[in-house]
Amino acid sequence: MRFAHDQRLHHRALSPRCIRVHEPGAHPQRIKIGHWASAERAMDRDGRNADLSSHLSVLVREDAGPYLALEAHTDPHADGVALDVFALGAIAFLLFTGQPPAASDLDLQDRLARGQGLRVSDALNGAGQALQDLIQYATHPDPTARLASVAEFLEYLDLVEEELTRPDNQRLRGCEKTSGQMRNELAFVMLTKR
Description:
- The protein is mainly alpha-helical.
- It has helices spanning 2-6, 52-64, 71-74, 80-97, 105-115, 129-138, 150-165, 168-193, and strands at residues 9-10, 19-22, 30-33, 40-41.
- The protein has one domain (2-193): Transferase(Phosphotransferase) domain 1 (Transferase(Phosphotransferase), domain 1).
- Strands 1-4 form a two-stranded antiparallel sheet.
- Helix 4 packs antiparallel against helix 6 (129-138), helix 6 (129-138) packs parallel to helix 8 (168-193) and helix 7 packs antiparallel against helix 8 (168-193).
């Protein structure tokens, strides 16, 4: 996704159905993303015509279900970066909890409103603060309050990996510092985006 975004190409309907893992036992795994019918380049946004491809993109978006940010249902010109970041957060929720982020669009709307984003702690006891913050701020219902990019999502994912692999005797002390730093960085990002 980062490569696609670097090329100013946004998927806009990313879901687990779009992701294929080739050679699952290999290291590193080869992962491919498909179903690009709803994709658009950032510079092409204003020039889209209603044709067969736009009808296909509606079907792809409907298939994305709870992995699609709510604004995609009401704003055909919703920011592609924000949509993809939301989808990555919702997919991370699935991967870490083993449960989809919501049963329906209404359930998703309720969960997002209640927790200002998906709360991994609702489905996973003992989730670290870095993981909770990553998923919550990637899936924030306000697109301007979400993580700003796929690159930023990956930076926070690195913090989650550090938190999960930290030795037990350092986990609490280091975790508090990391989550505090994360909150400060997220607050700064949210303030500078407004």
